[in-house]
Design brief:
By secondary structure, the protein is mainly alpha-helical. It starts with a helix and ends in a 7-residue tail after the last helix.
């Protein structure tokens, strides 16, 4: 029973590995939204490589496909830039909040230090009789 399960597990592992390798070979090497560049480049490269007019006509991008790709590319670029701006805004807001907190803490410590020094000053005056009594 154990050997049967072990042999079955090994064959399943081999099948899973095979499908993983297949998937990786067919996957784009660029992350979205940049993989659109790879699609365009591949199309252009295949078009230039083929010499048969019929295959060229089949692989050529039509006007509507080209416009669709341009629109998608500009849309992905806008989304990417918007995400970058949002990240910068969040970063600046976090830094600003951190500086505000540090400034408040510094101000609070300064007030506490001033109050402490005033108390000590009064205590020393009282101790040495320098405090004027009316």
């Amino acid at each position: 029973s154990y050997t049967h399960i072990n042999l079955n597990a090994e064959s399943e592992w081999k099948y899973d590995r095979y499908f993983l390798v297949e998937e990786q070979q067919s996957a784009s090497s660029f992350p979205p939204p940049f993989n659109i560049f790879q699609v365009i480049w591949t199309r252009l490269w295949l078009r230039a490589k083929r010499s048969d007019d019929e295959e060229d006509a089949r692989d050529m991008l039509g006007e509507t496909e080209l416009n669709t790709l341009k629109q998608r590319l500009s849309h992905f670029r806008a989304l990417y830039l918007e995400d970058k701006r949002d990240e910068e805004r969040k970063s600046l807001k976090n830094r600003s909040d951190g500086l505000g907190t540090r400034l408040e803490n510094l101000h609070t410590r300064r007030i506490e230090d001033r109050e402490f020094l005033d108390r000590k000053h009064k205590e020393l005056k009282a101790k040495f009789g320098l405090l004027t009594r009316h």
